[in-house]
Design goal:
Largest sheet: 8 strands, antiparallel
Helix content: 25-40%
Strand order of the largest sheet: 15-14-11-6-5-19-20-21
Length: 405
Amino acid sequence: MSEPPPIARASLERYADLLVGFGANVQLGQILEVRTELGKEHLARAVAASAYRRGARFVDVRYFDPWHRRARVAGADPETLEFYPSWHRGRVLQLGEQRCARIGLSDTPVPGLLDGLDPTLASRDRFPFVPEYLSVIDDNTTNWCGAVCPTAEWASLVHPDLAPGEALALLWEQVLHVCRLDEDDPIASWRERLEALDAAESELNERRFDALHFAGPGTDLTVGLLPGSRWRSGASETVDGIVFLANLPTEEAFTAPDPARTKGVVRSTRPLQLRSGVLVRDLVVRFEGGRAVQVDASTGVEALRGVLARDEGAARLGEVALVDRGGRVGTLDTVFYFTLLDENAASHVAFGNAYAETVDEGERERANSSSIHVDFMIGGDDVQVDGLTRGGERVPVLRAGSWQI
């Protein structure tokens, strides 16, 4: 017999319905992939049930045991750590070819999982993520949503001073809050928030800044933009016209930088969790000519350096995103040690691949290309953001987390 869910079943079903019906926007007759980990069966089952009620043709739930990653890093031939069988590549590409929907209950930290192992080796094993997911995203052939599912291990990292049960209950309360499920009508609340993000997106696109400048404690960074960089926020749309939210929650306006024109020094304002599970703390990066030439951190730095050496574009930026204080994640003043939430609390940049939708079609060959996409947070109330025009004007964009444009 399965264990009871850690929150009220009605809340779990309401969350699942939001992910299925509003986030991924699963369509009648669609196949849905659900990617998750062991320990999240209660939410995966609720998502599957919601999808079938909505008319999904088939729900393919795929579980991964994170302890298999430890076994592989500890025991496998290091030369094989980047290998994955070809059928995984083919399977992901089929998701796009068959116009499937996708929901990812994203990997959450397991404290101590990789203790005692070589972090450089750990960074080379990224399975079950495979680069073909980035191809499917760029082709815009699937409607998808990434979300979180609290676990006892993750809750103990976020709220170490609480008893395990209390920590898990509080983390669930916070997740439901940032997803607006404490509202009578969460979808109406989301639509209001998305309208505000759309307004910021429109203003940023109208300004056509040549670059952004971030200034704050330990940060003096200029991120150049392409003439064809296009700001996006909130909802996306597949090539077949299905509207979806790629992340829940989502609080950002984002675009593709010029991969050759980032310069200066930036200090990360929140810890970064790599896909391998390694936590990178106190990250400081120096850029020259668009490339990260110096990377330092108090923990996890060797693992990150290994990721940034993966290919030519890995050490360059593929995304810059602005986040204001109008969302719900930042106002909690909680470090979640998890990128999907922490990136919605603060402005951020990402090493690696740019999203095709953020560059005009005629300039997409100039956007950064890589097999990785790694976000890290650089914003906060004490980090001001200015837009730099092609005529040399400096325009305030964010001050204390509030829009100035």
